[in-house]
Amino acid sequence: MDDDEPFDSVDPAARSRHYSWPPLPTESERSPHAGLDALRRIVDGERHLSPGAHTLGLALSSASDRVVTMTASPGEWALNNGGTVHGGIVSGWVDSALGYATATVVDEGVGYSTLDLTVRYIRALRLEKTPATIHAEVEHVGRSTCVVQARVLDTDGRTCASASGVMMLFRP
């Protein structure tokens, strides 16, 4: 890693959060997260997640053919007024996990983007039950779409949300 290492610093007493994110990939690095090898470099710390995933407190724990596991470490900044993790944050985690799962089944140079996302909130996710674990698995990959299923689990292993999504593939 270089000096542009992203960081996330939270000061709960001051209710402040300071963070930086990795630079966007250059045009010559099109689809930098496509392919299982690229994801393994992220797991090994040789590459960064996307700026959006980093901002949401995500980390890629493992990647294998058709499957990724991510962890999400939200802070108080991610809570709704009811004191639980905001559904939009959970949806963002799932959307990222769908994309990274898709990356395991496409070749470098193939782009992808969310076409459809359905999230079912099963139980509230409380901050004391995080970091959350997000498992995403490719159910089907075709020429132009990829279908992915995901689950968000709390530290007790209970499912807090389940999701399905369709990713549009952009082949060269």
Automatic annotation (TrEMBL):
SUPFAM superfamilies: Thioesterase/thiol ester dehydrase-isomerase. Residues 1-33 are annotated as: Disordered. Residues 82-161 form the Thioesterase domain. Keywords: Hydrolase. This is PaaI family thioesterase.
